[in-house]
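chain below, 188 aa
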Amino acid sequence: MEELIQFDKDLFIYLNNLGTSSWDGFWLFMTDKFYQIPLYLLLLYFFYKYFGIKGTVITLVTVALLITATDQLSNLFKNVLFMRPRPCRADGVSDLTRFIAERCGRHGYFSGHAASSMALAFFTGLALQKHLKFIFPFMVVWSIIVSYSRIYVGVHYPGDVITGMAIGMLLGLGAYKLHAFLVRKYTT
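prediction:
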């Protein structure tokens, strides 16, 4: 296990130090959830267009449950179960890190950004793929970029991000199935 943890640290240091000041603005933009609001509004429009008002209400409730689940599960893992210091706080790592994030939380395993973005990508991609041919791959690529931004800005190890993405996939798939069931039951 120690070898895996050391590999995660070494890979983080390598990937994080690939960054340059000319790209910092882009990665800070991608890691900030506030700047994603136009995408969320566009997705909401598509849900309204293809599922109607009842389907949109079901979507909003499903997404609220999904984001709450990813956030609370991430907090449980970070602050109760693992309590692994983030790279920007870890001895022997922080001094080798390009830390450009606005702040550095205490614990990092697993990444809530990676989990919530991948959960949203799977949920929306699967729910809308019948109507929008390329939405699923687009959303997954978007999520990978958001997830990688957490390494770039210096707040998560690759293992944090990969675990978050895997959990997000599972939760997103579950949310898609719940949404499909509720839409069939209450909109037809």
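The helical segments are 2-16, 21-31, 37-82, 112-128, 135-152, 158-187. The CA atoms of residues 41 and 98 lie 33 Å apart.
thats it, cya
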